[in-house]
Design brief:
This protein is an alpha+beta fold. The protein is built from four helices and seven strands, in the order E-H-H-E-E-E-H-E-H-E-E. The protein has a seven-stranded mixed sheet with strand order 1-2-3-4-5-7-6, with helices on both faces.
Amino acid sequence: MALSIAVETPLQDDVRMLVAELNAYLIPLTPREFQFQLTVEQMADPTVTLFVARDENGRPVGMGALKEHGDGLGEVKRMFTLPSVRGQRVGSDLLQRIEQLAREEGMIRLVLETGEAEGFEPAYRVYERGGFTVCGAVLDYPDSGFSRFYEKKIA
């Protein structure tokens, strides 16, 4: 599959639809009070850079974001690939682009929070193959048992 990955605004109808699909997938997996998704509007904040993967027809098939927290810390957010392209390295390619930007921006550590429930296994594989390791709670996320945390030192 021919794939292009570029920085884009989340404020596009087709990206909003991708975010809605991600939310529809996640909402049944974890209690709502333990879900920490950025809205499309929050993703448009200057501290967030969104990468969108598009297929040869220009259709968005995946996304991932980097949120800058200062002091060399970046957070991976809103990672998602359509089920139809899973296993084709779209998630890995997005994660590599996020890490590349983090390095360019002088970040030294990346962290992320994801769910701790059945249904998150594809995400675990992408993060672990990308060199991320499980760690304790990060940032201001609660250690609720409904989250799994990862980190990667990049400097």
